[in-house]
Amino acid sequence: MKRFIYIFITVLVVALFHSCEELDLQPISSTSLMEDSVYSTYEGYLGMFAKCYATFVLEGQGDGDSDISGAGSKGEFIRALYYLQECPTDEVLFHSSSGNGTWTMITMNWTPATEIVGNMYYRLWFSIAQCNEFIRKTETDVMKSYGVYEQAKNDVGYWRAEARFLRAYCYYLLCDMYGSVGWIDDSSPNGTYPAQKSRAEIFNYIEKELLDIENKLMPSNQKIFGRVNQTAAWFALARLYLNAQVYTGNDSYPNAYKYAKKIIDNSNYSLAPNYIENFLKDNNSCSEIIWALPHNNENSQSSGGTNFLVKYSSHKYMINQGLELGITVDQPWSVNGRLKTNLIDKFETDDQPFDPSDTWCDNKKDKRALFYGGSLTGDQSKTPIVPHQKETWEEGKPFSKTITMGYTFTKWRNVTKDRMSGESEREKYVGIAFPMFRKADAYLMAAEAILRGGGGTRTEALGYVNEVRNRAYCSGNYLSDINIANGSISDAELTLDFILDERARELWTECVRRTDLIRFNKFTKNYNWDWKGQETSNNTDHVGIDVDDKYKLFPIPQDDILYNPNLTQNPDYQ
Predict the structure, then answer these.
(1) Residue environment code for 242-272, b if the CB has 16+ CB neighbours within 10 A, otherwise e
(2) Which of 154, 310, 323, 565 has the most C-beta neighbours closer than 10 Å?
């Protein structure tokens, strides 16, 4: 893995880009190398392969120097995805500067000109362009013309399959968030305007790609942390099929169950003994994670990724008061985001408050309730933590631009699972890998597919949900010295609404919540949360209200609509 991270990042250091004519992109580095220099060696090919992955981790050439023009760190993959998948939901209340559109995520009133809506869109297209070009250059005759084929022939099959996976997953996210979008692949001439396809056509393309590469990827027992293998294809298919009703109008729950069960039955992955191990600095050794995006203090310095997740949700007071986050005391961003009461209230009342004597939440029943409920106002650097209210509002007062009310979170920590990291080991940049796919989600997808008529039995579904809950409570097969209560539920408690809430408890801040709420028809209507649909300016009403169904899709950025004559805007955004 150290070798992979090294290759992963050095490709950026030497700026292994092609000419702008080849990719129809504007390079941002003056140190770009010519195409022949890049592809004349095995190392050059390996570097471009790494670049396909790097587009999911790095914002560009360094912190603030983005691949996406004008986006900065807000155009980094995880940060851009988090804005769109978490911030408009019942989980997170986040704001940044008013000009980039984070306010619109709170109130759900974005437009085609909203900056952060475009950042994710262009990040995905940048990744697709990188993968398309790499796939073109790994055709056998092309590699032979560069004199590299013989050296790379044992690797190139996996390289190509992985690049196709990454491209397919980009199209999945475009389909999920933007619906009917443009489409190009490696057969499209450079400079071609993407031709718009329907959401169902994009779905069919993703499905075909994933099925075709399923047995071309590394087998499930061959794991290189940060790269995808066959199990990742199964997971992507399960997620695609689970949402097929939304994307195509026709459900595919039997297929969702089929592929989720393949993951469950695969012994190469197992739930981590303790939930929080998925979100720590040494999660590269976690048995649960199927695909992760690695981060590193030295080589992936960015204000995006897990660095963003740790810093935006923390304050220097939290560190001064003994909460070890593994970053230096001057690094937190003083909390410009909190958690909404809807998420907090999905946990038992006794598990909600923060106990300063139990910073790892060992004494809570549900170990996933990783909240910080101390006040962050006033001089508290040397005083006890002042208990704080979980509400994100003060009665009779307008929305607070500093978001002083509400709880923040401690789920992501730049600390190893031995809990020994202290002041001398704190780092400027976070080294936590972001788990894109993990086995717990497969259990919940399978249970949901069963309840929606996809096969299996209720007994099986109940067992899957209880497997996840027992791990969360350290009960059942996960008994330990920090077990406080039994996590199992009864058959009578197992409903689709329960699964939606359980997905929130298990997967909060992991960038799937918007998709879940839409699948359950609870995103725009039928369920509301703090400030949804309200104005943030001088409005004292914090009670959420229904919004227009057009917000189930984000608009295609207006400048792309103007640039590409093949595109039509999503309904009601014209």
Answers:
(1) bbbebbbeebbbebbbbbbbbbbebebbebb
(2) 310
What HEC string does 100-169 produce? HCHHHHHHCCCCCCCHHHHHHHHHHHHHHHHHHHHHHHCCHHHHHHCCCHHHHCCCHHHHHHHHHHHHHH
**39: nearest Cα among 158, 159, 169:** 159
SS (H, E, C) 182-235: EECCCCCCCCCCCEECCHHHHHHHHHHHHHHHCCCCCCCCCCCCCCCCHHHHHH
CA 534 to chain CA centroid, Å, is: 26
Sole residue written with tokens 């600095």: 281
Give the integer Cα–Cα distance in Å for 257 and 450: 7
Instruction: Classify residue 456 by its DSSP letter.
Output: S
**Residue 529 has which token pair?**
């949360």
Rounded-to-integer distance, Cα 87 and Cα 531, Å: 12
For residue range 438-465, what is the model confidence (pLDDT) as tens digits? Answer: 999 999 999 999 999 999 999 999 999 9
Helix (H) or strand (E) holding 33: none
116, 83 contact by CB (below 8 A): yes
Question: Is there a contact between 160 and 150 (Cβ–Cβ < 8 Å)?
Answer: no
Q: Per CATH, the architecture of 2-217 is what?
A: Alpha Horseshoe (1.25)
Residue-range domain boundaries for the chain: 2-217
Structure tokens at 13: 């250091």
pLDDT in tens, 348-368: 999 999 888 899 999 999 999
Average pLDDT over residues 65-80: 82
Residue 338: strand pairing partners: 93
502-532 burial code (b ≥16 CB/10 A, e <16): bbbbbbbbbbbbbbbbbbbebbbeebbbbbb
Q: Closest Cα to residue 258, out of 213, 288, 224, 214? A: 214
List pLDDT tens digits, range 327-345.
Answer: 888 888 876 778 999 999 9
In the structure encoding, which two tokens stand for residue 434, read together?
């972001």
Question: What CA–CA distance (Å, rounded) separates 494 from 517?
Answer: 18
Q: In this structure, are residues 40 and 148 in contact, taking their beta carbons and an 8 Å threshold?
A: yes
Question: What is the Cα–Cα distance from 96 to 235, expressed in whole angstroms?
Answer: 33
